[in-house]
Amino acid sequence: MLIDSIKKEINCKIVYYGPALSGKTTNLKYIFDKLNPNHRGELVSVDTKGERTLFFDFLPVEIKLPGGFKVRFHLYTVPGQFFYKASRRLVLRGADGLVYVADSSASRMESNLQILVEMVQTLRDYNNPLERLPLVMQYNKRDASDAMPVNELEAKLNKWNAPHVESIAINGVGVFQTLDLITKMVLKDIVHKAGVK
Q1: What CATH number is associated with residue 59?
Q2: Quick check: pTM over 0.85?
């Protein structure tokens, strides 16, 4: 979080984290398409042949607070493929809030767990443990034929008792609910940590 008291600007970083093809980029693309252009910047997406997001998607979303402060949320995604661990570590640095996008399919549980464990360890390495950060769990692909019951996903993935959202990001279901939850949580955290009102 960067606060400029002179310009009355606050910049926050929200990272959408999760395994490959879980719906992280789909979330950001849907947000970009539906938001009023006056309230968002450009969507920067670095793709490679045959892969989805190689590095990150970055979409600044701006809101105004009482008292004249302007808050800009920088939304990032990480590449989910296991061999892009270094890129994920880099994007995660300095995160003010996290959305963990899990694939609801039973066949993807191992990938969900592996990437989640990696995220938790990376945050510890940065001396920014997950327990200190706003977190929303998004259980995506609820329309999958082998989608696990939410209570099972919660038991396996959400030991922090973070709020969760069921989603079908490709259709926009749960996308803005997730964004609304994480931005409110990050704003509350800003007020708590920095005393901005």
Answers
A1: 3.40.50.300
A2: yes
